[in-house]
Amino acid sequence: MFRKEPVLGGAEIAALVTMAAAFAIPMITKNVLVYSVLNQALVGIVAAQSVWIMLRMNLLSFATPAFMAIGGYTVAIAGRYEITDAFLMTALAFLLPALAAVPLGALVLRLRGTYFVLVTFVLSQIMQLLLFESESLTGGSNGIAGVPAVTLLGTEMMSNRQVLLFACGIAFLATVITALLTRYFRQHFAAIEENEILAESLGLVVWRYKAVGFVIAAGIAGLAGYSLVNMLLTAHPSSFSSESAVDFIAYTIIGGRGTILGPIVGTALLVYATNLFGTHGQYAQGLYGILILAVILAARGGIAGTAAAAFRRVRG
Amino acid sequence: MKHSRTPLAAVLTLFTPLALSIPLDLAATAAQAQSCEVKVGAMGPMSGGAAQWGLAMAGAAELAAAEVNAEGGIAIGGKKCKVVIVPYDSKYTADGAAAGSNALASQGIKVIIGPVGSPEATGIKPVAARNEQLAWNAAYAKNALEPKFPLMFHIAPGPGTWSDAMVKHALQSFPAIKSVALVAPNDQGGTDIASVDAVAYRNNGVTATEEYYQRGTTNFAPIITRLLANNPDAVDTASSPPGDAGVIVKQLRLAGFKGPIGRMGGPGTEEILRVCGGIDVLRDFYWFETVAETEKVRDIDNLYRKLVGKEPPGGTALWGNLPAARLTMKAIANAGTAEDASKVAAELRKLAVDDPNMGKGVWSGQKQYGINQELFFAFGVGIIKDGKNLGVTRMEPGT
Amino acid sequence: MQQFLQAAVIGVSLGAQYALLALGFTLIFGILGVVNFAHGGFYMLGGYVAYSCVSLLGLPYPLAVIGAVAATAALGWVFELYFLERLIDDHLATLMLTLGLYLVISTGSLTVFGPLAMEFHFPVTGAFHFGSIYVPKENLVVLVICLTALAALWAVLFRTDLGRGLRALADDRAVAMAQGMRPKLLFPAAFALATGLAGLTGALVTPILALSPGVGDPVLATSFLTVILGGLGSLGGAALAAFIVGMVEAYTSVYFGGSIGALVLFVLVLLLLVFRPTGLLGREVRGA
Amino acid sequence: MSELRVEGLTKRFGGLRVFHDIEFSLPPGALMGVIGPNGAGKTTLINVISGRQPPSGGRVFLGGRDVTGQPAHAISRLGVGRSFQQTNTFKGVSVRENIARAIRFGRRGIPQGLEQLMGQFGLIPRLDEQSDKLPYGSQKMLGLVMAYAAGPKVLLLDEPAAGLERSERDNVDLFVDHVRRVGGASVLIIEHDMDLIRRLCPRIIVLDAGEVLADGPPAAVLARPDVIAAYLGDTEDAA
């Protein structure tokens, strides 16, 4: 009656296959615009996955940019001392924000949903101010420019294609972690999202799963920060503003908060659309606003959720 | 538990990254095959608080292109080619400018007019170098130019070049100034300029204190109270955005500050007058004008209306950016190509700095940045005394 | 000493401005349970509507303020009725809806009014001087209007049927509806009341400071701080917290400079929130 | 086996005192009822014992161990399960998923005779139906089955029969009997249905104005004039 959960569900497999397919793109084309759009999308996907993990428990987090900054600046500062090894930096970019999320999580996770949203918003504002005030460590308002390229197994990933391939790698790794985490704890997260009190009365240690989600989401955000800094070769405060948190939340909600495919679909389409705006940047934010209204009112499951539901109806 | 719950969603997203790449790829290559066209990029913040500076950068590029196209275009390989400007909104952020460089590079654009702000300059330099693109930035950052980025040019000198001359001139109109308090945002756009201005003041015997505020502040009363505590003779708004500077002036006068107010930073006097409540509120004001305003310089706006057929973007930024755009067009013509940035750069360095509207200028930047790739035209020092605009005094480059 | 008193004067005027904003924000959350991300947008809209009335329609300033309040209240009413009403119980959905609205408003105003600051001045200028302390007249006007708005709001909530209905809905919606409170009428009224207050603040403050597309952004962060400190859903708490935030901002900025002031404020609120999650006077907020 | 013992338990909300000095012990496998007029603090009593709300005073012991003030998940892990007044299930998912989660969170494997219990309440044919689409009665029983599925040693039932049809109320008897006989757990029932209380409970406690008015076998307790005056006087219709 109660079969063991399959390690990966349909959506998770589709997500992993999609992210694997992304590796093919730098091989097929040398078009730098495609590289740029895809690289931005990959950074956005990883950040949106960080938001998505917390959304599994109905917790909307604005703190993604703060943890991205920790990951990004770790890499930039290490770059000053010529430490650029891919595996070491990937581990650090994940672990440092995750470690920072432990005390922060203990502070923040006791709060009811609405307070959680407000506090994470305040957290990302504080991170911006900390970056400005810590001149010696983070270069203050100028940030850290000229971050050296990643070295993977001895080869320096200098060219556009190599940078993109590395971004694909980070995004794939993040998707693996996110898929395993949200699949293994699917029932726990879903129970917390829907009825925390009932779950706790049955014995679920709610705060522990919230903490695990918060810490791993912070690590994933750190990876996004690493990928962003590697793309720009600079770590600059303006890249980690609280406005960017709004973008990642929009990607996840519009893409579809119900499935791991949501952040992927939402980010890919919205980053692609924003680049089309190129010249009229100011309308991009307006587009996000309209899309959010449309999704919340008409298609609660977002793009991926609605598509899945449509397919199920068709299949009957 | 059915095995795969979302097969269609899976199929849909399986091809998203692939699907997206193909149309982009086609669009890019197709455009080039049409009639002979020379594409030049234009970049700057076209949304948010600094939008006016970005739109002015794109405007300068459009005007220079319109002038060249009026005479049939640029001679490339024996044929006259039409110059097309491709604008990109870099949103005043480092990653915005980097994304812009990639976006323009993919359309084969190797020459960019812009970006504008310090964060954008920081963001674009490494990426433009990787894409082998020539670019002009108008940032006042200390590292606006660097020897290791030979393809980066600077549209106008930062405070390091003109602040000393400006302080001397301001002291002639307002000899009473013995101490000054500088106010600017606490990010790169503010600190880089205010700190250099402070050095210029100190070199001329004026004690200078720097006061930084959080960008996005709307009420400056607390900062002003802090400033006036050691009652400075003058207050300098350096490179704070015009909107903020207008409020600072209004609240300074409200607080009873009678001394002169200075602005050794970006343009915006027109907007400051509009926000603070007019010239009699401003009363005593000295400001750095990127452009020494003359009849011929103001004529640029008419030229813009005639050739581009639209209203010019407000303020003086359009004028300051135009010479760089014109020289770039000339350099592309001399180089006979817009594909090879280093060739265009080599031609550019050979050109004399002489603009039909702005008059004569010089290449500068060696002292300040160690690379002589900065246009230095006559700038202006505007003076308003006792509520009367005494106009902008022309300061020749190198004074 | 002069600095100390001057900082107090500034703190009070900041407090008045933040109180007007925080009241609307708390009202919406207390009664509808909605975190209004578009609050800064309504503030900005109030400024632009007042500006348009004065400069385009040539109306006298007081009429323009009334126009601004009416316009923002109407938009609030319509938005609640046709957008928020169906999803009122889903805190996340309403939060995202107001976020979407904010993005549309700020992009719209940038497109219509352009990026530059508008020429928009408060009719009353100048300041009273007591020795070296100055009290700008316009701030006094705003302070007076703020106190009257506070009193009027208090009267509406505690002395009228509409108010009694709103408070009943805030305490326990199911019971209130069982006794005939019609949320179809009261919810839009509450939302309109709150957005009208934000519009009023915009119409009053933007001529004193500056009116440009970006003025809405910092309003959100300040409203959050004020409301967290005061306790979500508590009007008294929000008003008290607004003056505290005003004072803290004034004194930290005067004595420590701009950027550190903001940091102190944020960290203070973060710590308080964690050790007293209901804020000063708020009650245990309903689970999202 | 573990005995639930409560000593001097008190709960105040600000000035309002909900109940004070509640004393009783529930030996392993025992069954006890708690009755009292509305607002006597019965549900709050369960919330405090199960750890959902902290007590203002007094002690709670489980198998001799002091568990006062521990969080709900800890007390649940120690074996104190509870059900909720309204039907409390995970609405958006199937019956199967609801029960699977209860088992997984309880971490004590599949309790004795669970499938048999589910069969008795007609839940087996509805395993893949969404829980909030079930008729009210079935949802209520699903809530009880989930509480049992978490493998409790002590089960606190908050008005299990509330809202059930006459015919469905026997299910509560079946459930309580199964929980004690097969599951070996002790049960505390809060209920208004006096027939059910009389039928099932060998011992009842009457709560009134925050105090234990009476504690003993129903026949004796319900005959006492002060109990009748305080409680039964006004609800004669509880036929």
Summarize the structure.
Chain B has 399 residues and is an alpha/beta fold.
Task: Walk me through this protein's architecture.
The complex is a heterotetramer of chains A (316), B (399), C (288) and D (239). With 316 residues, chain A is mainly α. Chain A contains 14 helices and two strands. Chain A has one domain. Helices cover 75% and strands 1% of the residues of chain A. In chain A, strands 1-2 form a two-stranded antiparallel sheet. In chain A, β1 (151-152) and β2 (155-156) form a beta hairpin. In chain A, α4 runs antiparallel to α5 (86-108) and α11 (242-255) packs across α12 (261-277). The longest helix of chain A is centred in the last third of the chain and has 27 residues, at 206-232. Chain A is globular and about 55 Å long. With 288 residues, chain C is mostly helical. In chain C, strands 1-2 form a two-stranded antiparallel sheet. In chain C, α1 packs antiparallel against α8, α2 (39-56) crosses α9 and α10 runs antiparallel to α11 (258-275). The longest helix of chain C has 31 residues, at 2-32. With 239 residues, chain D is α/β, with parallel strands linked by helices. Chain D has a single domain, classed as Rossmann fold (3-Layer(aba) Sandwich), CATH 3.40.50. The longest helix of chain D is centred in the middle third of the chain and has 14 residues, at 136-149. Chain D is globular.
Topology of this protein?
The complex is a heterotetramer of chains A (316), B (399), C (288) and D (239).
Chain A: H1 10-22, H2 24-28, H3 32-55, H4 64-80, H5 86-108, H6 113-133, H7 135-138, E1 151-152, E2 155-156, H8 160-184, H9 186-201, H10 206-232, H11 242-255, H12 261-277, H13 281-298, H14 302-315
Antiparallel strand pairs in A: 1-2
Helix pairs in contact in A: 1-8, 3-8, 3-10, 3-11, 3-12, 4-5, 4-6, 4-10, 5-10, 8-10, 11-12, 11-13, 11-14, 12-13, 12-14
Chain C: H1 2-32, H2 39-56, H3 61-84, H4 91-113, E1 127-130, E2 133-136, H5 137-159, H6 161-171, H7 173-178, H8 183-208, H9 216-230, H10 235-256, H11 258-275
Antiparallel strand pairs in C: 1-2
Helix pairs in contact in C: 1-5, 1-8, 1-9, 1-10, 2-3, 2-4, 2-8, 2-9, 3-8, 5-6, 5-8, 6-8, 9-10, 10-11
Chain D: E1 4-13, E2 16-26, E3 31-35, H1 42-49, E4 57-62, E5 65-66, H2 72-77, E6 80-82, H3 95-106, H4 114-120, H5 136-149, E7 154-158, H6 169-181, E8 186-190, H7 194-200, E9 204-208, E10 211-216, H8 218-223, H9 225-230
Parallel strand pairs in D: 3-8, 3-9, 6-7, 7-8
Antiparallel strand pairs in D: 1-2, 1-4, 4-5, 9-10
Helix pairs in contact in D: 3-5, 5-6
